[in-house]
Amino acid sequence: DQQVKQNSPSLSVQEGRISILNCDYTNSMFDYFLWYKKYPAEGPTFLISISSIKDKNEDGRFTVFLNKSAKHLSLHIVPSQPGDSAVYFCAASLYNNNDMRFGAGTRLTVKP
Amino acid sequence: DTGVSQDPRHKITKRGQNVTFRCDPISEHNRLYWYRQTLGQGPEFLTYFQNEAQLEKSRLLSDRFSAERPKGSFSTLEIQRTEQGDSAMYLCASKQGVEAFFGQGTRLTVV
């Protein structure tokens, strides 16, 4: 059962433009959401998170938006840089729960 | 380096052999997780330890899989009688709060 879905397997943007990565979830009990970035031959690294009591969280060039009614979240990267090229995973969990569910990932390519 | 470390990074084994992977978590983290990732998929939860106690196991974890965390420090994941379907990246993660920190993973290839 795929409770977290990333429907776009890949995204290509020009350097300096905005990258928008999307994620949908089905379990309305999820109350904490995270984004991870993964480079080849490395494990996922934590990027940014958001609690369900918020609808936006910002950290430098990265902003995550949460729309609970639509069960949708998105990650915005502005401006995009070539070093941002990686696979981005969306994850959801119950707060402090142990079974964090991941989406299948979106491969972002930022072209110089 | 105070991150999560995994050993080995790569393992090639013949079908039917047993393999064991090791994970050293961030030292102050009392929670340790094992995930499995196959091509084109996100990480899938396998099992979880709070200190030395294994508190949760996914139904993905068949009886050929066993995990331990003696003394609540490092952890091992053993796969007995490996099958080709076991070929995957095995990821270990540790956390204290909500964010999990992952190791680089062990890529297992069963031939």
Characterise this structure.
The complex is a heterodimer of chains A (112) and B (111). Chain A has 112 residues and is an all-beta fold. Chain A is 0% helix and 54% strand. Chain A has strands spanning 4-5, 10-14, 19-25, 32-38, 45-51, 56-59, 62-67, 72-77, 86-93, 101-102, 106-111. In chain A, the strands form 2 sheets. In chain A, strands 2, 4, 5, 9, 10 and 11 form a 6-stranded mixed β-sheet that branches. In chain A, strands 1-3-8-7-6 form a 5-stranded antiparallel β-sheet, with no helix packed on it. The radius of gyration of chain A is 13 Å and the shape is globular. With 111 residues, chain B is mostly beta strands. Chain B contains no helices and 11 strands. In chain B, strands 2, 4, 5, 6, 9, 10 and 11 form a 7-stranded mixed β-sheet that branches. In chain B, a hairpin with a 2-residue loop joins strand 5 (44-50) and strand 6. Chain B is globular and about 40 Å long. In chain B, 34% of the residues are buried. Chain A binds chain B through residues 4, 6, 9, 32, 34, 36, 41-46, 49, 89, 91, 93, 95-96, 98-105, and chain B through 4, 6, 31, 33, 40-45, 48, 55-56, 58, 91, 93, 98-105.
Largest interface summary: A-B, 26 and 24 residues
Poorly predicted spans of chain A: none
Alpha carbon gap, first and last residue of chain B: 33 Å
Order of helices and strands of chain B: EEEEEEEEEEE
What count of helical segments of chain B does DSSP give? 0
How many E strands of chain B?
11
Q: Helicity level of chain B, as a percent range?
A: under 10%
Strand content of chain A: over 45%
Structural class of chain A: mainly beta
Largest sheet of chain B: 7 strands, mixed
Task: Characterize the biggest β-sheet of chain A.
Answer: 6 strands, mixed
One letter per element, helices H and strands E, the order of chain A comes to EEEEEEEEEEE
Overall pLDDT of chain B: 93
Assembly level? heterodimer
Query: Which ranges of chain B are low-confidence, i.e. pLDDT below 50, for 5 or more consecutive residues?
Result: none
